[in-house]
Amino acid sequence: MVEKNSEVPDSRSYYLKEFQYFDGECDITFNIVEIDFDKKSIHVAVTDRGKISVREYDLRQDDKGNLYFTYGCQYDKIQVNDFETIND
Question: Is residue 38 part of a domain?
């Protein structure tokens, strides 16, 4: 269960943070659009093989309190803490 407490930052602090993921064939880029702690969901813009789409995933929490969602047919864990702010 994802709980919003003093350890979990405000969802606005995650906005547009980016993460690069290699799926074995090519890089996939994720950008956080929104995190909804009440609905336990995360919306991310996914750039995959030249196509961009916004997708919603279930937001989960591991036993250490880290937030993540699963991606792809292998259900790979994408850790929210691995996302970074990209500077121009």
Answer: yes
Instruction: Return the residue matching tokens 């269960």.
Output: 1
pLDDT of residue 16: 81
What value does the mean pLDDT take over residues 4-20? 68
Q: Is the pLDDT of residue 82 over 70?
A: yes
Residue 87 domain-assigned (yes or no): no
Please give the full DSSP string across 17-65, using - where no structure is assigned.
Answer: -EEEEE-SSSEEEEEEEEEETTTTEEEEEEEETTEEEEEEEE-EE-TTS
Closest alpha carbon to 16 in 2, 38, 1, 35:
35
**Predicted model pTM:** 0.78
Give domain status of residue 52, yes or no.
Answer: yes
Sign for the pseudo-dihedral over CA of 8, 12, 18, 22 = positive
